[in-house]
Amino acid sequence: MRIDTLRIRLNSIFKKSLAVLSFVLAPMMLLAADVIEPPKEFSIANFDWITILSVLLALLIILVIARAFDIGALTEKITGKTVVSWNNINAWVAIIFLVAGLFGVWYELKVHGPLLMLGNSASLHGDTYDSMFYWTFGFTFFVFVVTEVLLFYFMFRYRYNENRKALYYFHNNKLEIIWTIVPSIVLTFLVLRGFTTWSKITTEIPKESQEIEVFAYQFGWKARYAGEDGSLGNQNFNFISGSNPLGVAEAGQVDELVKELEGEISKLEAFKASADDSILAWKGRYDRFVATGLSRTYPEDFKTLKTKFNDGVSGAYVRTLEKDIKRKRTALNRIAEYKKDDGFFDGTANDDRVTTEIVLVKNKPYIFKFRARDVIHSAYMPDFRVQMNCVPGMPTQFAFTPTMTTTEARSIKNKPEYDYYLFCNKICGAAHYNMKIKVTVVENEAEYNTWLASQAPLVAPKVAEQTPAAETEGIETEATDNTVAMN
Ligand SMILES: [Cu+2]
To answer: Which of 71, 102, 301, 393 is the most exposed place for a label (fewest CB within 10 A)?
Structure first.
């Protein structure tokens, strides 16, 4: 009797909580819809009454069903007969779930599948890569459908039946062997295929591949092409400066940087020498602020002054100066070491082109050398099935051959505005979403040469130094700006 009372009480608590939860959930769902749409002015006219009413209707239906089960349970208690068979209900729910789930899978594949497909690959290795994807998807999809159907069908077919006794089935070696060997074979096939494809992509690089340096920074990309001499000049992160964002080993730029660093060092040295005077001056200002009450009128200025003065007295000011000087001296020493190496500044960098766009020739092999300036980025060119991390201090590379020009891709996709892009595929900071560089594939070498000639070389060649070869090839070297600005 007491247990019965408890059950009734629990039942009523459960129902009350359900009701409270419903009234909390409904406004929450409405709020969630508001997150997506821009907030509207608060007015009853702006309410989405259809959504509110459908949520209320859904809650009402749930309550009615719950009520119906209550009545069923009560009838069972009075008559002693089974009215609601939970085993049957669960069995049918399993079938409904299976059918609805499979319909959902079919719907997703049909409606959203095409959006995820990358379309025809535009590189030589792309087709092998795509075929790997389809094989993997095919195997896993087949296994998925078979296991899901069996799982829910068995739930339905072998639900509890009081006339049937379950068989105690402990172990079967044959089954164990089958379900170990079959996946092993499939996985071995998939893994070996992936391994050989990856090895082929990364090792079978044609000797005549053209090198292009791709440089990642927060938040953009720069590309560097070899000029008329056909080879990329050296680079080092120690040479990076405002006018030399890629740190290319070009003597003029590096000398400029040395001068800049020396100037900054002597400025810092002067600050250090007059540190005592500065501290005294800050103290004077500090006292005056306190005496005249300015400290209360301009609390922010006073706070800054106080920090400065405290840092001066504690010695932090001088220590920071010394640290800065040391850092700049280290940079100078490193540059000096590189300058000792005659071959390092051999002038090959002078005609290099630093560009804000990548232009490739169809069916020509390329090797992209990736570098990063600040954090890890990832170069991702979905059309060419290329992806490679760009790590500061660790050069990486990816070789591939484009097989479809931008014009061809536009006509195949039926999108006259379509362009290939190299995206950053690693969340690298606030403007990561916008970190991309256009890649254009042209039909022939002539188009490429015209484009390259329009890009300014690192060092503008003097008219007298123009090589006759460059003139006969019709390459214009009209560029005069030898600085490459970050945009
Ligand atoms: Cu990035």
So the answer is: 393
List the chain pLDDT tens, one digit each, 487 residues: 456 666 666 677 767 777 777 666 766 666 555 555 555 667 777 778 888 999 999 999 999 988 888 888 888 888 877 777 788 888 999 999 999 999 999 999 999 888 777 778 889 888 888 889 889 999 999 999 999 999 999 999 988 888 888 888 889 999 999 999 999 999 999 999 999 989 988 888 888 889 999 999 998 999 998 877 777 888 888 888 877 878 888 878 888 888 888 999 999 999 988 888 888 888 888 888 888 888 888 888 888 888 888 888 888 989 999 999 999 898 888 888 888 877 777 777 777 888 899 999 999 999 999 999 889 999 999 999 999 999 998 889 999 999 999 999 999 888 899 999 999 999 998 889 999 999 999 998 898 889 888 887 777 666 544 444 444 444 444 344 444 444 3
User: How many residues comprise the chain?
Assistant: 487
**Sheet-wide strand order for 358-361:** 358-361, 436-442, 420-424, 377-381, 386-390
Place of tokens 């720069």: 222
The one-letter amino acid at 398: F
Cα(206) to centroid(ligand 1), Å: 29
Alpha carbon of 238 to ligand 1 centroid (Å): 21
Distance between CA 156 and CA 96 in Å, rounded? 10
- Full-model pTM: 0.66
Question: How far apart are the CA of 13 and the centre of ligand 1, in A?
Answer: 54
CA 9/CA 19 separation, integer angstroms: 15
Measured in Å, residue 407 CA sits from the centre of ligand 1 at 28
Distance 439 CA to ligand 1 centre (A): 17
Backbone angles phi, psi at 222, to 5 degrees: -130, 150
Place of tokens 């769902």: 29
CB 155 within 8 A of CB 94: yes
DSSP string, 320-335: HHHHHHHHHHHHHHHH
Query: Ligand 1 centroid vs 374 CA: distance in angstroms?
Result: 9
* CA separation, residue 446 to residues 56, 210, 368, 449, 477 (Å): 69, 16, 21, 5, 16
Q: Are 18 and 70 in contact (CB under 8 A)?
A: no
Ligand 1 center to 420 CA (angstroms): 17
Residue 123 Cα to ligand 1 midpoint, Å, equals: 23
Cα of 484 to ligand 1 centre, how many Å?
20
Those residues with Cβ within 8 angstroms of residue 263's Cβ, 6 or more apart along the chain or in another chain: none
Radius of gyration of the chain (CA): 36
